[in-house]
Amino acid sequence: MRLTPRFLLSAAPLAALPGRAVAEGMPQLHFGDPLLQGQVVWGAIIFIIFYVILSRSALPRVASVLEKRQERIQGDLALARKAKQAADQAQHELLEARNDAAERARVDIQKIRDMAKADAQSQTEATATRLEAEIRQAEKEIVAARDNALSHLSEIASSTATSLTERLLGHANDEMVSNAVERARG
Amino acid sequence: MASGSTIDALGQFELHPILGSFGEALCLSQSPLFMVIAVVLVLAFLYIGMRPAAVVPGRLQASAEMSYDFVRELAVGTIGEKGTAFFPFVFALFFFILTGNYLGLLPFSFTFTSHIAVTLALAITVFVISILTALRYQGLGFFKHFMPEGAPLALAPILIPIEILSYISRPVSLSIRLFANMVAGHVLLEVFASFTIMLAGLGVFGHVLAVAPIAINIALTALELLVGFLQAYVFAILTCIYLSEATAH
């Protein structure tokens, strides 16, 4: 707003009615007035007192409160940072313990599984061995039975041939039949 | 006050003795009284506001701290680290003027910032302090600023007087800016208030019309609140600029 007093003084009478203001002039310019001079002196005294109180007491008081707050905030921040660090550490430890436990469990499970596997393996092997032995025994018995059967074969064949020959010829020569049977088996 | 058909817009700036003959002997007028009121208000604001000294401030404490931070930012932000030394001075200046401007808006009060003698005294204080500061920080090199660097030497007889004149005109413009703004605002308020009284004398029709100047005065009061702050701010920031020039090398 740039309304100068002069502008206003010239405008006021135009807008309204001629005032005494122009004639009397501005009281601020009556520099001979002892009250006007006094106000400068008093103003200086008051301003100096104001300045001294502000700079010595009032403003340092505000500053100290602001400083204390800053310190408090810094302290609290440091505390919070420390707490966070501790929490992080605890979390880390927890994670480690969990991983440890998991690892141990895994090893245990593996061990049990291996043991079970080995158990099963040995059982299978034992069964297999027993079965094999049984099979071998059975085979041996079969071979024995066959051998036994085969060993009686010429005897049976001889007796059969003898009886057949007897029926056909009326008589039989055992010697010849045996020989013939041996030749046939040959 | 308006009396009859005349508008006495300047009567409000007259000084009257207070405290009877005692005050008259000491040249005490209402102007120093309002200065004391302003100073007491500002100090009360700070002391009562900061009394809780709470970590989480209440409203009053927060506003006291805000005003502290505001002026501190103004001083240190403009002048730099050296501004810390000038901060109480800038604070005193800003709040002395601001409270003076705002006190004047109350009815029956007095605006001491509407007196050129007061504003000039403040401006000369700033002027003298900035010269002393400049001499302290720059020594005699301060006078080199009156001859702009790089200008041809032949122009020195013209340039130096111009520079000196512009330097000396600083306190003049500083004081007249504040004084003129305050006077203009209060003259306007007075003129429109007088219109209301004059219109009220015109009967029923005038009574209705008299509302208009009141509405204008309400708007003007709002404007004056802005101007009062702005002028205090301008005064303070120009002080800071002058001081920052003085502290610079």
Q: Which class best fits the helix and strand makeup of chain B?
A: mainly alpha
- Determine the most extensive contact between two protein chains: A-B, 52 and 62 residues
Total domains of chain A = 2
Q: Mind describing the biggest β-sheet of chain B? A: 2 strands, antiparallel
The percent of residues in helical segments of chain B reads over 70%
Q: Please report which band the strand proportion of chain B falls in: under 5%, 5-15%, 15-25%, 25-35%, 35-45% or over 45%.
A: under 5%
Order of helices and strands of chain A: HHHH
Which secondary-structure class do the elements of chain A indicate?
mainly alpha
Average pLDDT score of chain A: 83
Please compute the radius of gyration of chain B using only Cα atoms.
22 Å
Describe, in plain words, how this protein is organized in 3D.
- The complex is a heterodimer of chains A (186) and B (249).
- Chain A has helices at residues 5-15, 21-24, 34-169, 174-185.
- Chain A has 2 domains: 12-151; 152-186, no CATH class.
- With 186 residues, chain A is an all-alpha fold.
- Chain B starts with a strand and ends with a helix.
- The relative contact order of chain B is 0.13.
- In chain B, a hairpin with a 2-residue loop joins strand 1 (2-3) and strand 2 (6-7).
- Chain B is globular.
- Chain B has 249 residues and is an all-alpha fold.
- In chain B, helix 3 (59-79) crosses helix 4, helix 5 packs antiparallel against helix 6 (156-200) and helix 5 packs parallel to helix 8.
- Chains A and B meet through helix 1 and helix 3 of A and strand 2, helix 2, helix 3, helix 4 and helix 5 of B.
